[in-house]
Amino acid sequence: MSEQQNLDPVTFEVLKNSFITSVDQMAEQILRTCYSFVIYNRDFSSALHDAEGNSAAQGNQDIAVHVGTLHFTCKDVIRAFDGDMHPGDVYAINDPYAGGTHFNDVRLVRPIFVDGRIIAFSQSNGHWSDLGGSVPGSFDVSAKEMFKEGMRITPIRLFDKGRFCKDVAHLIASNTRDPASIIGDIHAQAQATQVCEREILRLVGKYGEGTVKQGLGAVQDYVERAMRQRIAALPDGEWETQDFIDRDPAGSEGMIPIRVKLTIKGDRAIYDFTGSHPTIGSIYNSAFGATFSAVAAGMKTFFPDLPLNSGFYRVFEIIAPEGSIVDAKWPVAVTGFLMPFEKIMNAIYEIWSKIIPERAIACAFNLEYLLTGGRDARASEKPIFMFYDWLPGGWGGRNGMDGCNVTTACFGTGLMAQPVEGQERANPILTTQFEVLTDSAGPGKWRGGAGVLKTSRMLEAENTVISYICDRERAIVWGIEGGLPSMPHGLTLTREKTGKKEWLGATFSDVAIEAGDVFSRPTAGGGGFGDPLERDPQRVLVDVMDDYVSVERAAKDYGVVINPVDPEICAYEIDAAATTELRRQIRADRRGWLETDPAEISARFKAGEIDALDAVRHHAVILDWDTGDPLPVSTEQFRDMYRKRSAAGWQ
């Protein structure tokens, strides 16, 4: 904790909120001036830093995954240009090995001067939809090293004393598939950092340089003191758990473990990832900066009332084995860092749910990216188009409350679901279906939130390929305290020429598609919290009326027998006697279901006797959802998790 002179409470509070407002004003500037549809839908974040690069403030809607890394990239810029910084300079960096996330997240950093002295830095981070590389969107799941992922930008100067370095900017933009938007977004982000600069200088004019510098440190010390007090009030101890990446495409069958152990000692938390898997042969690896951010975001979820800045970061330590999936080193591919990121967050949710049970929450759905690119044949010049889409899904059930339906991912709730009207105007793709997905929510006494289903058709386009970056096709969204899992992720492609449906799963890149082809993908709901047989039947009835749960799965998962009276007017009734008997039968049989030979489940799945939800929720069996073949290693791993998280909570 830094040494600070006394700052009166009123001035402190005014400055604390003014710093946050200055970052929010950066966001407003970007929204009004950005060129990219991706950035317009809030895939960006901003921060204010002190003169050493420590984060002093974030905005109210900034994305969690970015915020925990921005201080690293600011400090790397300071190291690169130490002694050679000037008013009007703006620097760019996207280096994940220097504390960033992935190459698409490009940060612009501006030093803020007063009388020739740097007192702060403003930083704007935006996701550029393409940074080059082997596939449109720069997400090639087959990449083992960064050279297929796109352009790595180590710290460079984009504005030199206020002069735009056009040659450098155009060199970068010319190596992408959307150079016009890149140039526009550079100017938008640079102007955003200037908006923050103006606000900080206004505060200096009102309160003085010394008071503002003091405030930048004081807000960090405030968060550190508050967090240390709260951690010290908790019992010392150790808690551990694990989550999984679906697979290593370059390895054998079996899920990839990420192990997390939390140790609380006094007023400090230590997160130990020892035992996590080595880096894998795809882009689903995390460099240290992203892992750090996942820890910060996961832990911060349980302390929502405090601002997030570097004061928060001082209270925890991370042990991440070098060369593991949570500490990838150059040149290991890391563009898909988000897959381990969200596993880390959910593992931390589970641990803190045991420490602070009143805030307990089950696993949330996994964010997915769909990237389609080619030539737009609707225009005579056939320009390159880039369709970059993500979907909302369900968050986990909570202690005493259902999970949030159709919500953006825990990766960052400030992210918006993209409006299809804007997508259709910019891309030769028609959305034919976008709706809440019945039975996607993990069953529980408090069910998970519901996910969605989106279906799209390719229109007039040429040389088009599609990539899908997702997970939890096998490491399926899980419940806790007796709650049940959600459902597998994966994309289905229907070829117009054959009419045949192809299950492509949750991870693929560079698949050729043609005009008329249809692709459809669901997002999972959240995991359930508590035994679903303890859910109030009236709540199940309401879920059926709202199409969150089908009549069939109300019986299978909740043991609630509902008779349709007139579905057209949502008229249903509960058969109380049949419900009592069915729940008795399920309680008697369900532990035995977990001992069923996976080969038997596979045969029944292939025969159409059971579906994927039966396999996952009742038998904890993971299959190849295309062929129906059993995956023995993945099943063993999933069953072990299921017994600890679900079956252990049953009476």
Could you walk me through the main structural features you see in this protein, from its secondary elements to its overall organization?
The strands form five sheets. The chain has a seven-stranded antiparallel β-sheet with strand order 2-1-5-4-3-6-7, sandwiched between helices. It has a five-stranded antiparallel β-sheet with strand order 14-15-20-17-18, covered by helices on one side. Strands 8-9-10-11 form a four-stranded mixed β-sheet. β12 and β13 form a beta hairpin. By secondary structure, the chain is α+β, with helices and mostly antiparallel strands. The protein contains 16 helices and 22 strands. 33% of the residues lie in helices and 21% in strands. Among the domains are: 218 residues, no CATH class; 162 residues, no CATH class. One of its GO terms (cellular component) is cytosol.
